[in-house]
Design a protein that fits this description.
The protein is mainly α. The protein has 2 domains: 74 residues, 434 Repressor (Amino-terminal Domain) (Orthogonal Bundle), CATH 1.10.260.40; 35 residues. The chain contains 5 helices and no strands. Helix 2 packs across helix 3. InterPro entries: Cro/C1-type_HTH, Lambda_DNA-bd_dom_sf, TransReg_Diox_bact_type.
């Protein structure tokens, strides 16, 4: 059976969790995003849905990825998902470092 999701509520709950993890008040977040305190509160309470632009502002202000706002409680072991994400980020950073070394070697051999 397919699960029915209230996306506004999911986004609002996740926004609250992420904001609290960053130890920010709604007012702090409002200041960082340029969105009104009422709007932030309405998103968190599932009364309003955010625009793409607001999602971008929230990601920047909270140093979060867009997918984090859409995670549901039925995802098994969310902590493990975050650990995997950290490992993937480290691997990407390591790969970028290796690639940049090879690019520098190629530039120096010309």
């Amino acid at each position: 059976m397919k699960q029915s999701y209230n996306v506004k509520q999911i986004v609002g709950n996740n926004l609250r969790k992420i904001r609290n993890r960053r130890k920010l008040s709604q007012l702090d977040l409002s200041d960082r995003t340029g969105r009104s305190l009422t709007y932030i509160n309405n998103i968190e309470n599932g009364k309003k849905f955010l625009s793409e632009k607001t999602l971008q502002l929230l990601c920047t202000a909270l140093e979060a990825y867009p997918f984090e706002f859409f995670l549901t409680d039925d995802i098994p072991n969310l902590d493990q998902a975050y650990e995997i994400q950290k490992e993937q980020e480290k691997m990407l950073n390591d790969l970028n470092e290796v690639l940049s070394r090879y690019q520098r070697k190629g530039e120096n051999s010309d």
